Please model this.
Amino acid sequence: MVNKKYIKSNEVFKSLVKSDSSDGYYDDITEYTNALLRTQSNLQLALEALRACHWSMEGKRFISVHPFFDELFDILDNEVDFFAEYLALNNIPPVSNFNHVTANDELSSDEPDGFISVDTGVFRACNILGGLEEQVDETYIYAGTVNDHRIQSHIDNLLESLDHYIYFFRKEFMDMDGEDDD
Model:
């Protein structure tokens, strides 16, 4: 959770809201800032959960799916960095250690126990990305509340990327007949 002293000293955040005269001003900004922190944390958690799936997959199509996970890792890593830097530039300390990341965890993912098929790994990856989309969408709504259109635009692009990978993984790599890809 963010300390209100950071918000009160932040002219950039003050300029985002319609009016700073209402009692709800700091509440809206505090909720928005906490949503940004959750987004940074959940992006990091999603990245680590996807790596666990990726490292645990085996089967005929592993070599085919491998480069798409690497691309996704790069996107998520850049997003973690973007949100951390955005927070820091706005005088809000970003989440900076893994204990704080896990304290903000809103994503639940089962870590693979042993090796899993490509279909199972891709299914888990789609679930992880879907949960991330839901949380990021909440941040989008908070950004609208405080008129932070830059973040809304950025999140639009992020959600489009996540949708792309979910669609692509489902279409190209999930065996719809339930057969494992051994």
